[in-house]
Amino acid sequence: MIATALLALGLVLIVEGLVYALAPSLIETLLAALQSLSEDQRRMMGLMAMVLGLVILWMAKTLGA
Fold it and tell me: What's 37's DSSP letter?
């Protein structure tokens, strides 16, 4: 269980790092777009991302990861 959590955390950090390394100006554009959304919209996006992450993890575990 701990190994899986560390693997997931490592993968998230790799993806986050790639965005900052390859397209730093895109981060500013993304932050400006997020500011234009209401707090409820941002909260819903966060919840949807969590659900999508859970579905992906469930699929990976089902497939034997």
Answer: S
Q: How far apart are CA 65 and CA 50, in angstroms?
A: 19
Q: Are 5 and 13 in contact (CB under 8 A)?
A: no
Q: What is the pLDDT of residues 15-54, one digit of tens each?
A: 989 988 998 888 889 899 999 999 999 999 999 999 998 9
> Tokens 């955390």 appear where?
9
Enumerate helices (H) and strands (E) in the chain, giving the number of each: 3, 0
CA atoms in the 13 A half-sphere facing the CB of 15: 6
Q: Please state the length of the chain.
A: 65
Selection from 15, 44, 40, 42 nearest residue 30 by Cα? 42
Task: Report the distance separating Cα 33 and Cα 30, nearest Å.
Answer: 5
